[in-house]
Amino acid sequence: MGIIQAIAKKEFMQLKSEPRLIGFLLFMPLLMLILFGYALRLEPKDIKMAYVDSDKSYFSNLIKTNIWSDGYFKLYEVESQADIINEIRSGRAKAGLYIQKSFSKELTDNAQPNINFYVDGTMPSLATSMKNNSSVMNDSEVTNGMYFLDEDAPNVVIAQEPFKIETRVLFNEDELETWFFLPSVIGVLIMQIALILAGISMVRERESNTLEQLLVAPISKAQLIIAKTLPYTLIGLFEFYFILGLGFFVFDLPLPSSAYFPLLLLSLVYVGAMIALGLFISIVSQTQQQAMFIAIFIIIPSVLLSGMIFPIEAMPSFIRPIAYLLPLTYFNEIIRGVLIKETLFIDLSLDYLALFGFIIFFSLASILKFKKYVA
User: Fold this and answer.
1) pLDDT over 50 (residue 157)
2) pTM of the complete model
3) Whose CA is closest to 201, among 228, 220, 221?
4) Closest residue by Cα to residue 44 from 310, 303, 321
5) 3 state DSSP class of 217
């Protein structure tokens, strides 16, 4: 019993000597509690909806007003039906509404006109939620004033619904979950490789007292960093195309011909950003254990807040900015846009620039921290 107590005391003393580790152990459960208890929701709000109202009548305004008052969709006007689809393709909108010019005339003629409702099918759970909330367009507050009875034509049959909502799911018509999750899985696996393997590369040398030997070797600091990170960079690039190929052949993941260059660029900037972050973790960590905890501390919020599982639109407004501090958020936007929606490169350029910015930031931070350590 005395031996057990002595070894246990030694472990507690070792933990006490690593205040960062204790901080992670205390903060991680608190973070998870906040995220799952308050921040993460499956029901989004303020979904951006591009609309065209060619009718511009009292009746079409009834529909728009009820959408506004409900608060689920946030309307903004565009010029044409093609613009609606382009807005959804680019990611600026998640839904669209088109009211044709003859809407009020067909309505007063009891011809039961259609309105076109477009839904982005990239995230099936969000598409289902939007379809469920489309009932706000034809609930009783809207339709009560849309029934017209001509007393001189008693044989006219009045439809139960004055107009129909014609729903069209774009880009993922069958709402396949695999199309939504598999592209993001690539990003998560690369993140694990980069943050865990690259994250312990330099600190491992420090713990084994071989870093000083490398520093006095006939090699520059830049060459040393490149040599330490090159294997993990190649592994990350291999994982990217390996999983992408499996998704294409096994799960019928779409791979448009226009996607080759955007995917090549994405693999380079995302793997580069993750390796740069992993290197920074390795340099700031004192032990491999610390590096592992920092990596886990980044990976878990990235999975939860990047839009991989939960819609960013469903998060509280004060949480959403955190999502855009995570490289995985931009990776998800790009790879889903390229593979599923065939989004134009210009519409994804800011996401590419964000990933490139992560490379610059963490590379410079690593160099400055490494120079300080060497000094």
Assistant:
1) no
2) 0.82
3) 228
4) 310
5) coil
